[in-house]
Amino acid sequence: MNAPAWASDPARSRGRRFAEPPAPTRDDFQRDRDRIVHSTAFRRLVYKTQVFLNHEGDLFRTRLTHSLEVAQLGRSVARALGLNEDLVEAIALAHDLGHTPFGHAGQDELNRCMAAHGGFEHNLQSLRVVDALEHRYPGFDGLNLSFETREGILKHCSRANAERLEAQEPGGIGRRFLDGTQPSLEAQLTNLADEIAYNAHDIDDGVRSGLLQLPALQEVELFDRHRRQTLAEHPQLDERRLLYEAIRRMLSEQVYDLIDTTRAALAEAGPADADAVRGLPPLVRFSEGMRAQSVALKRFLFANLYRHPQVMRTTGRAQQVVRELFAAFVQGDMALPERHAGRPDRPRAVADYIAGMTDRFAVREHERLTGRPWTDE
């Protein structure tokens, strides 16, 4: 079946920053995906966490499992819409490569540490990983990914950073943040697949941890509708299976809503090709009703999980680890690895090094610095 005109075509890619001969058996987007999977940063994701830190349990999501879930959801929707599945998968697998240890707590603290040195944005850091920080090839730094994969990785970007990117790469991936245009449909899709995935798995992990109780979720209509339907059909179901089935149905409803709404938007807009998509409003989207329900779920999770006192205690400890590591490396109390030590921009070099750490490595380095073992107290 021929792909629709608005799908990204690897044969019409805007290319790589460094020219390379084509691969004999893979197109550019497949090659991007494979380079990401074999990267050092991708392997580290297995020990980088989301809400619950690495020592808190073996069954909670990590950045790696989250990225795989985003890729699965994204590919399924891309197939239904006729979009390029390989590009969606490449973006999904790379979108969290720049995340710090300790989830958003680590990111927020590293941004504070870097406030006088240009700040820290995890999306921009993911781009730095694939553009510069991976050292695998003899002819260039980074992974030399295609333009389309790189623009999908850079989901958000401040204007100041977009201007810096534009100065370095005129008309490149920073441009859309300055002129208000959109990325490819595949990038738009991966953004929403990310949202669907983390909302669902944060419910699962929150209940598993004991911080969320199933009855409390009754105030979230998007989830509770499926809980009630499941109980009506399976009244003897135990709580664990009830949770799984309600989440599965919730995921399915969001996916089908996304597919149907996006199909209608594409039919109405009728973009002539993939480039025409860029000058239109976002076309991959939920219906208004589903968007409102998704926002309500996010608000519930923010109030009841992300700001739970137990999570906040762990957050405070994680931020202390990042803050003290940053100060020690910048001041020279701890030696940077050789690849970072010779750089003139020491604060940025330190930020790159800390951002690349896994949770357990950061804890180990902090204990080596201070002599204090990890404690949530």
TrEMBL record:
<feature type="region of interest" description="Disordered">
    <location>
        <begin position="1"/>
        <end position="29"/>
    </location>
</feature>
<dbReference type="Pfam" id="PF13286">
    <property type="entry name" value="HD_assoc"/>
</dbReference>
<dbReference type="InterPro" id="IPR003607">
    <property type="entry name" value="HD/PDEase_dom"/>
</dbReference>
<comment type="similarity">
    <text>Belongs to the dGTPase family. Type 2 subfamily.</text>
</comment>
<dbReference type="InterPro" id="IPR006674">
    <property type="entry name" value="HD_domain"/>
</dbReference>
<dbReference type="Pfam" id="PF01966">
    <property type="entry name" value="HD"/>
</dbReference>
<dbReference type="InterPro" id="IPR026875">
    <property type="entry name" value="PHydrolase_assoc_dom"/>
</dbReference>
<dbReference type="InterPro" id="IPR006261">
    <property type="entry name" value="dGTPase"/>
</dbReference>
<protein>
    <recommendedName>
        <fullName>Deoxyguanosinetriphosphate triphosphohydrolase-like protein</fullName>
    </recommendedName>
</protein>
<dbReference type="InterPro" id="IPR023023">
    <property type="entry name" value="dNTPase_2"/>
</dbReference>
<dbReference type="GO" id="GO:0006203">
    <property type="term" value="P:dGTP catabolic process"/>
</dbReference>
<keyword id="KW-0378">Hydrolase</keyword>
<dbReference type="GO" id="GO:0008832">
    <property type="term" value="F:dGTPase activity"/>
</dbReference>
<dbReference type="InterPro" id="IPR050135">
    <property type="entry name" value="dGTPase-like"/>
</dbReference>
<feature type="domain" description="HD">
    <location>
        <begin position="63"/>
        <end position="199"/>
    </location>
</feature>
